[in-house]
C-alpha cells in the first residue's frame, strides 16, 4: 500500500512541477483525503506554482519595460556650420568637435568653453597651435548650455582657422 501511495505522490509531484506550470494550474485543494501526509507536499507545490506564475508575470513586465526604453545615439552631424569666437546654445546634449590650425604668423591659442555660465575654469579645453600645425579636440556640452570656441592669435597678424562641428545626442 505504501509503495502505491508513494507512486501516486511521485506522479503528482511530476504533474505539479513539470506539466502543471505549462499546461494548467493545480487545483487549490488536494485530491487526496484530508489528513493524508502528502497533502503538505500538495500545499507546497501550490505555493511554488503561485510563486512561479508571479515570477513569470514580472519577467514579462520587465521585458516589456526594457523594449520600450529610449535609446541614445549620435544624431545627424552638423559640419562646419559654426564660427569661432561666437557663442551658441546647445539644443540637445552633444559634442563640439574642433579642428584648428595656424596658416601663417605666430602661434595661436584655441580653447573651448562648454558652459559659459559656469566658473571661468570649468571644463575648458585648451591647446596652443604653432604655425603649420593642426590640432583637434572634442568637447561635451549639455542641452541648454551656452558654448564657444575661441581663437586668439599671439602675434599680429596671425591667420588661424577652425572647423567646428556639432554632433548631437538624440533619443528615439
Helix content: 25-40%
Mean pLDDT: 78
The largest β sheet comes out as:
5 strands, antiparallel
Number of helices: 2
Distance between the termini: 67 Å
Please state the CA-atom Rg, rounded to the nearest Å. 35 Å
Structural class: alpha+beta
Which outline best applies?
rod-shaped
H-E string: HHEEEEEEEEE
Summarize the entry for a quick read.
By secondary structure, the chain is of the alpha+beta class. It has helices at residues 2-23, 39-67; strands spanning 72-74, 78-82, 87-89, 94-104, 108-113, 125-129, 134-141, 146-153, 159-171.
Essential attributes:
single chain; 172 residues; alpha+beta; Jelly Rolls; 2 domains; five-stranded antiparallel beta sheet; four-stranded antiparallel beta sheet; 2 helices; 9 strands
Verbal overview:
With 172 residues, the chain is of the alpha+beta class. It has 2 domains: 2-67; 72-171, Jelly Rolls (Sandwich), CATH 2.60.120. The chain is built from 2 helices and 9 strands, in the order ααβββββββββ. Strands 1, 2, 4, 7 and 9 form a 5-stranded antiparallel β-sheet that branches. Strands 3-8-5-6 form a 4-stranded antiparallel β-sheet, with no helix packed on it. α1 (2-23) runs parallel beside α2. The chain is rod-shaped, with a radius of gyration of 35 Å. The two termini are 67 Å apart.
